[in-house]
Design goal:
Number of strands: 7
Number of helices: 4
Distance between the termini: 28 Å
Order of helices and strands: HHEEEHEEEEH
Strand content: 15-25%
Largest sheet: 7 strands, mixed
Length: 188
Amino acid sequence: MEIDAFLAKWRGAKGGAERANYAQFVNDFCNTLVLPVPGVAEGGKLGDYQFDGPVPNASARTAKERTGFIDLYKRGHFILEAKQSYLKSGETEPILASGNGYDRLMRGAYAQARNYAANLPGDHPNPPFLIVLDVGRAFEIYFDWTDNGRGFEPFPDVRASRIPLDALSDEDIQMRLRGIWTNPASVD
C-alpha cells in the first residue's frame, strides 16, 4: 500500500471502534512502511511480536481478571497501546491540539502501556519505547531514558513526540518509526 492510499483510507475514520480497527490499522501501517507484520499468537503466552499479548498481574480489573493484554508488543522494541477517539458530527479531521478530553484519552493509554512495561515477565527485556496510538489520528512516542522500564518520557522531545497521521508522509518520520520497529538503537 502506498502512503497516500494508507492516509486516504484512515484519515477521517469516525472512530470509537478501537478493538475492531487497531489491528487492521497496524497491519496496513506495517505494509505501507515495509515492516514485518505481527505474528501468530500462542494462547496464554507473551510472544516476541504479537497483538493482545498477555501480561499477568497487569490488569486494573478484579482479582479474577489480573491478566492485562498489550495491544501490540514487540520484544526488546516497544509496547503499543491503541485507542480510537471519536470525530464529532460534521468533522472530517480530528483536532490534535492539546484538548482536555483528547489528552485524557492519550494519558490513560500511556499509563496503561507503562503498567504493562512494569509487569512484563522476567525473561522479557525492558522495551525502550512506548507507543500510544489513536487509530487514524496520531502516534505518541515515549522513550525510556533510564533503561529500567520506568523512565519513559516524550521522544524525541515534548513538541515532536506526537505524530499526526498526515505527518507519516514525511520521510524522516517514516525513518524514525522504521527504526523503532526494526532497530531501536538506531534512533536512541
